[in-house]
Amino acid sequence: MTLAELQELVERLYGEGDRERGLAPTVAWLCEEMGELAQAVRKGSPDEQLHEFGDVLAWLASLANQMGLSLDEAMQRYVTNPP
Prior knowledge:
By secondary structure, the chain is mainly alpha-helical.
């Protein structure tokens, strides 16, 4: 699955509800998922870690969708001019 496909999937599944929730709550959920990922990295099994990576990606895609931004475009600088 590409980043664009991820964004399309998240939009189909959650787009309307995500937009109703709004940006600030979406950022809060993303931060919560990052905390869960950090905990899984420290103490979780590979299955738990994989689950949390998926959650973080989904919330990141939701946020990008709400802002009208492309994750593919966001990553392009790593192809053309990595920091």
